[in-house]
Amino acid sequence: MPQDLTVDIRHNPSLDYRALPRQRTSAERGPARRKPLDLVVVLRRNGGDDLEILVMGQNVVPPRTRAPRASLSVSATTVTQKAARLRSIWRDRVVYHQDATSGEDEFPLAETANLSELASLADELTGELAEEGAYLLDLLLGGESHDIRSFRAFLLDILGGERSLRITFDSDLHLPWPMLSLDPAEHDGPWGSFLGYRHQIEQTGGPWPTHDAWWGSRAQAATSLNTDTTLEDVGRAPEVRKLLEERSRLTVRTESGPLLDALSMPVFDEDLMYFWCHGHFVDNGSPHPHLVVRLSDDKHIDGDTMTLKRRRIKSPARARFKPFVLLNACHTGQAAASPQLEHLGQALINLGADGVLGPQIEIPQVFATEYAYEFLDLYLSGEHTAGEISRRLVRRFAEEFHNPLALTYSLHCGIDSRLALSS
């Protein structure tokens, strides 16, 4: 039976057969090979509520040596609860910080991305956050058995080394890994003790991104801005849109209908999806509310909404969905409220997304636009990976602006995500 084939003409190197195309070099005949990760930390539920942890990595584990591992003494439930506590502490002490002497309903640390004028306060609060992050890491690795003590010493020595590593936390528990910290007293003070400051970090767990044949590079990226129009003039949002318009082939969607229609197409040909909208949890009658985002209309979009649209595709073998997704909406980097649930980021990864980046907490809108501009400016160049950029922004906001909120952005897969541009 005849079928219409999807054709995507990305280049016209012969100028309609009027010239010889430029000969490609060997480096241009396929995607760049990704460097091996320095460290993989595997955290698994070992039946019920027990946890087991092991470390792999050719740069840290000697060859022909058994991978270090240990059965943890803390339960999965306890770790999940303490992670939720850490997120709430960041929200309350930074985003909702108030000056008790002013008598006004103001949140000074949420009104600007540059906290240089409030540096002493920001540094003090960051020290408290580092202590809390170290407490959660100590809780995770706590215990006095020989295996746990040996494993803890081994892992903390690696994480506290001078070299910045590329690390995957392949974990059944979705924890705020960049916000975890080493002992601030032993590692360059509060700023330098955070894992997200020291290393490139991604969280994985569950299915990996779908394997996809390389489609080649193109001169200009295809992007989308999926947004709520009430946010279009906030902070640097106009500059973000201008940046996308000037440096990519941009599609703008302000309502759920066009977004869901695009998701239902077999070939979703975008290199980057940017969401600038609201995210919040919805009560569903269970102990675990689910995460939704909303554009300009009132329709809630969650992971199941997107999965439903793409599961209807009749020929998945000829389908394509491989964007990197920047979910710049509150809570969207928080992959799950419990180990049993999948949220929006995990659903996008399951569909094939190359990576998802989003904040673990409610994020101030002005800061979110500043972060988005800096991230997209670097990512659209095609010269940097998402992992490189995320760590670079943590350090920039810390060192130049005394602002720790870049640490709340969590990368779900995608540490090696990079635009393949021919220019």
Largest sheet: 6 strands, mixed
State the helix count. Answer: 11
- Percent helix range: 25-40%
- Would you identify the regions where 5 or more consecutive residues have pLDDT less than 50? 6-30, 336-341
Name of the CATH first level of the largest domain: Alpha Beta
Please give the number of β-strands: 15
Strands in their spatial order, largest beta sheet:
7-6-9-13-14-15
Spatial extent as radius of gyration? 22 Å
Task: Summarize model confidence as the mean pLDDT.
Answer: 85
Task: Characterize the overall form.
Answer: globular
| Strand portion | 15-25%
- First and last CA, distance: 40 Å
Total tally of structural domains: 2
Structural category is alpha/beta
CATH topological fold name of the largest domain: Rossmann fold
Characterization of the model:
This protein has helices at about 75-95, 120-140, 145-160, 190-195, 195-200, 235-245, 255-265, 305-310, 345-350, 365-380, 385-400, and strands spanning about 40-45, 50-55, 70, 165-170, 200-205, 220-225, 250-255, 265-270, 270-275, 280, 290-295, 320, 325-330, 355-360, 410. With about 425 residues, the protein is α/β, with parallel strands linked by helices. It folds into 2 domains: about 40-205, no CATH class; about 220-410, Rossmann fold (3-Layer(aba) Sandwich), CATH 3.40.50.1460.
